[in-house]
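User: My notes are a mess, but here's the protein and pyridoxal-5'-phosphate's SMILES. Can you give me a structure?
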Amino acid sequence: MYPSQRLTHLTSAIFTTMNQMKKIVEQKGIEVIDLGIGSPDLPPAPHVRQALQEAVAREDYYGYPTSEGLIAFRQSVANWINYRFGVRVNPENEVLALMGSQDGLAHLTMAWIDPGDVVLVPDPGYPIYAASVHLAGGEVFPMPLKAENQFLPELENIPDEIKRRAKLMILNYPNNPVAATADLDFFSKVVSFAKEHQIIVAHDLAYSEMAFDGYNPPSFLQAVGAKDVGVEFNSLSKSFNMAGCRIGYVIGNQEIIKPLAIVKSNIDYGVFTAVQQAAIAALDGDREGVNPNHLSKVYEHRRNVFIEGLNRVGWFIPKPKATMFVWAPIPSGWDSFSFASTLLKEAGVVVIPGNAFGQMGEGYVRIALVRDENILKEVVRRIDKCGIFSRK
Ligand SMILES: *Cc1c(COP(=O)(O)O)cnc(C)c1O
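Assistant: No problem, the inputs look usable. Here's the predicted complex:
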């Protein structure tokens, strides 16, 4: 007996190998600092935890919720989106609750993709994008993200045959893993491209609230005509430190959302009502002057401490404008994996080899700034001490 063929596409082998190596290093008594996984290390704001606590104590919140989410939650999403981006969505049919945006991204392909359909996926990219296409039996066409193009895909280089067969394009700015950003001009080009070739656009805006130096990432739906062609995923995981709560949402074109809602209504019964109430408290409480979101300040400071520290010891990395990631070019003479495994064995620091996110990630490692300032300084010291930059 063998498991299904589609599993052969899903082996995230590098992550597993890095984890095994981490255990071996720890068995030698070395305290490993893990900057691998992108899970926020900070708690949600006190008023959010308070709301969750009160909701959990209610007797009437333990029935099955509904897959599409409470109307009160969807209304809070619509209000917050309008407050943040000036974008209007109808909570009745243009907002769908998700058990984390991962849930929506994983199931969107099942709602829209048949065998033979092509999906345009960024390379490097967040792993679920390609995985979801394989799960649905579709075909991945990787769009290379290169430093010389500011990590934006070159739409004009997509072959005609692929444009004909493509049904869906997935984008993500601010980007994981490359930490690049996109402006409204680029999104407008995407809208024209999608209209011309009849392609659905799914934009992942998970890092809208982690941006630095006064930069404010746009929503894809701010581009004129975007709602005609696309949807946008967002999540409370990064923006409100609620990753473990599993709550997110998709907004935008109702004809694109509807089939996703049908898939989900057959699979899940929605997000725990108490978690939805906590999410409402997070979204409603996030207004200027009432409860300013300090998240960007925290990560901006970490970014500065870390990158300036690495510069001093000989590792020159551009400062990202957004996300909690540093996309670090590795010195010549190394490949991503050998560099990351040497750093783990000799400095006790976990980073992710760039090629874990696609072929185009070779030559980089991704470092997540998910530890406090002092630990990041310790990482700099360890990298300096192990002498990895004075070799090869
Ligand atoms: C963390 C992350 C998400 C969030 O996933 P959830 O399922 O909402 O926790 C989505 N997209 C990207 C690119 C991420 O890095």
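The mean pLDDT is 95.
User: Great, I'll file this with my notes.
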